[in-house]
From TrEMBL, chain A:
Protein name as annotated: Ectoine/hydroxyectoine ABC transporter permease subunit EhuC
Topology relative to the membrane: Multi-pass membrane protein
Short name of any one Pfam family annotated for the protein: BPD_transp_1
UniProt source species: Shinella yambaruensis
Family label: Belongs to the binding-protein-dependent transport system permease family. HisMQ subfamily.
Compartments (UniProt record): Cell inner membrane; Cell membrane
Membrane spanning residue stretches: 37-61, 73-94, 106-129, 203-228
Predominant cellular place of this UniProt entry's protein: membrane
CDD domains named in the record: TM_PBP2 (cd06261)
Keyword Repeat appears in the UniProt entry: no
Keyword GTP-binding: no
Keywords, ordered alphabetically: Amino-acid transport, Cell membrane, Membrane, Transmembrane, Transmembrane helix, Transport
Automatic annotation (TrEMBL), chain B:
Transmembrane portions of the chain: 20-39, 51-75, 81-100, 187-208
InterPro entries: AA_ABC_transptr_permease_3TM, ArtM/GltK/GlnP/TcyL/YhdX-like, Ectoine_EhuD, MetI-like, MetI-like_sf
Membrane-related topology note: Multi-pass membrane protein
Protein family (similarity comment): Belongs to the binding-protein-dependent transport system permease family. HisMQ subfamily.
Protein name from the UniProt record: Ectoine/hydroxyectoine ABC transporter permease subunit EhuD
Pfam families: BPD_transp_1 (PF00528)
Amino acid sequence: MWIRVLAAMLAATLTAIVILSFQDGFKVFVPGLLQGAWLTVQIAVLGALLAVVMALTAALAKLYGPLPLRWLAVAYIEIFRGTSALVQLFWLYFVLPQFGIFMDAFPVAVLALGLNIGAYGAEVVRGAIRAVPKGQWEASTALNMTRAQMLRRIILPQAFVAMIPPWGNLFIELVKSTSLVSLITLADLTFKAQQMNQATLQTVPIFTLVLLLYLAISLTITICMRFTEGWAAKGVLHGKAS
Amino acid sequence: MWDWAFTIDILPVLARAAVITVQATAIGFVIAALLGLVLASIRLSSPAAGLVVAILVELVRSTPLLIQIFFLFFVLPKVGIVLDAFTAGVLAIGLHYAAYCSEVYRAGFENVPRGQWEASIALNLSPWTTFKDIILPQALPPVVPALGNYLIALFKETPLLSAIAVVELMQRAKIIGSETFRYTEPVTLVGLFFLVMSLLSAGLVRVLDGWLSRRYG
């Protein structure tokens, strides 16, 4: 039932954007904002890829790595979950150059957001792996599998199902935190909005369009993750298959 | 590279700004916790109003807090409501987290067994008494740790207020940076402050969680 409400909300949002882009007060802002939205989507997608890779690596290192690697994973997770995304972004952008490491704003944005969400994701992955029933491990041992085989063939596919809903939330968080990159001079949706706002003072139409655009991106992700959930839960007896 | 004299110099200035950060966190969380409870209660009381609340919650959760802060700060004056930066910012943070908190309370309400409602009807308790004396005391303790986690999350979002020039910790660090061209010390100190506070409060939440589950579990 809820997925229909979500779909209706997305349809209403897109319709509103299309209708507004033909209105006189709004028309001028649409091309610039769409440009910004495109950069937002790029950062979000690359950040999400980095986050998934970091989360899997850190979770596996924390669970099964040798001791120094385990400490490294714990330090990474605690540091990136313990400080603000904004502070991390500023640190990478303003402080790293002091140590001789120069990066453009775009890689810094992807890196900071990917690492930040990856740290939260690591705990999601760890929780999902721990939630796989113990019998699955024992059966794998009985079948004489190596640890890598167990993880790849038995544990991770089951953990994957439990991971999807929290990952959906994290991806939404990621999209929302991309608005922070406007503060390190990247021309994303938020940056464009502020720029246009300062130039024209047409606050109401600009920020209405921006809210709608973010809403469209987030709702698309939410709906996609719902479908993935249904698809992944097929044939799995555990977990909430809805 | 790291200037200790400069660090000692800026510490008191940052400490004063930290007070603003803590104030924003406290007021924002009070708004979030109370409004969240109201939203969750509405959702509990009527399915039709509940759907409206659910859609509102989804809307708030799907858009960035930064944009919501801008919206309150820049758009509200157009309709005649002029708020200063601190009020607008704290209000935005409170409203944003109220949406999250309402989901937490909802989980708490759903965990109260059906029989409790039925028994209250059998005892001829009014809906208000049922809610206040039977349901709430059972629904709240299990969700306190989850609320605590949102308090920490809210605390870490307060640097966003720097975007509308509220002089909290991050804004103060940026001002120091632009005045002295030294960003390393102030930004690192702000990061450390948040790290220490978050770890401390995460520990506190864990202790609270243990205590609650012993007392009510």
